[in-house]
Amino acid sequence: PSSPSRTARLFTADGVRGVYRNELTHADVERLVTAFAGGLWEEAAATGSGVPARGFPVVVGYDDRPWSVPVAVAAGEALRRTGCETIDVGLVTGPAFRFAVSHLDAAAGVLATGAGGGPAVAGLDFAGKAGRPLSTGGGLDRLKESFSGRMNRGGAGRREFDANIPYEASLWRHFQSSSIASCVVGTSSPLVHQRLERVAKEASISLTVVELPRRAVDATGIDTAGISRIAAAVARSGATFGMWLDEDGTRFRVLDERGRTLPVADVAGILIEDALTDRPGATVVVDWEIGDRLCETVLRRREVARCNGSAESMTISMADHAAAVGVDSAGRLWLPGQPLACDGLAALARVLRALAGTDTPL
């Protein structure tokens, strides 16, 4: 049987993770999602904003792990029992999921994903209005505290939406600059792999994709063995640079033309300088570590907003300051737009753009 104390241990920085059926059961999923939906009702009551006639629209998606489908089904059933209308977007990456929440003007979203964990891990990520991710220190803490019994407001409706088509269309704005750079990108996600190949074809990018086995990331959030394979491929091919993308398609690491992994702060500096060519004088959002590393160089005399670096706080700070760019020490890039783009593919486009204007290697 599930208990609040046991389930609370499943919370990570940006979601819930546990070995499927062993640590994270369907009962856990139902309780977590019921508590999440309860928060929507409580917020509506507190603000007097009212409830849509068909219930709160909540996007539900899943990644390409086999047990993410039954987890998403359990989540959708729990949402409908609590009076929420579910919008099933099917198989999506994290960036495509958050895009769908914003694009559909949904009240919230639930993604079944085990990203970052070993092959047996399942989990849930949660998003609020406009695709804002919930993180520890913010919305996830409130969810952890609000476990409740079963809540039943009657069955609500369900509809479907293919989020991948408009999401991919939204990516092209990032791939506008031509570049003669060639790159090697490694990922353990078949969905990200397929999307990379389509992007390379449509944007005429010289790109080689390295398939990586799915494994748990290390304490710093990266796949060290996978990055070593990318480095070897860069050396063999003579590529301009390499990039590792996490299973979710959000976090990334950049390798130079010799296959050496660049420090996150150095890459952040390149991306900040590139973004500010479009909006000189605009605010830059960074976490405390990146801020300290770059305060005497790239960020000197810049408008800078610092935050704790969680996905939720970065997203909120980007919106509050109408920032031109956001970077954190976890290896994530935020760009403005509707929705805000926290996307490894957008980061790939920006590295290509930065290299297009120079003959200097990374």
Number of DSSP helical runs: 12
* The CATH superfamily title of the largest domain: Alpha-D-Glucose-1,6-Bisphosphate, subunit A, domain 3
For the record, the CATH class of the largest domain is Alpha Beta
Could you give the order of strands across the largest sheet? 1-5-4-2-3-6
Helix content: 25-40%
Helix/strand class: alpha/beta
The end-to-end span amounts to 53 Å
Mean pLDDT: 90
Domains, number? 2
Describe the structure.
With 362 residues, the chain is an alpha/beta fold. The chain folds into two domains: 4-162, Alpha-D-Glucose-1,6-Bisphosphate, subunit A, domain 3 (Alpha-D-Glucose-1,6-Bisphosphate, Chain A, domain 3, 3-Layer(aba) Sandwich), CATH 3.40.120; 167-356, Alpha-D-Glucose-1,6-Bisphosphate, subunit A, domain 3 (Alpha-D-Glucose-1,6-Bisphosphate, Chain A, domain 3). It is built from twelve helices and 15 strands. It has helices spanning 4-8, 26-47, 68-81, 94-103, 139-145, 164-171, 190-203, 224-237, 264-276, 288-294, 311-320, 344-356, and strands at residues 16-19, 57-62, 85-91, 108-112, 121-127, 158-160, 182-187, 206-211, 241-245, 252-255, 284-287, 304-307, 325-328, 332-335, 341-342. It has a six-stranded mixed beta sheet with strand order 1-5-4-2-3-6, with helices on both faces. Helix 2 (26-47) packs across helix 3. The longest helix has 22 residues, at 26-47.
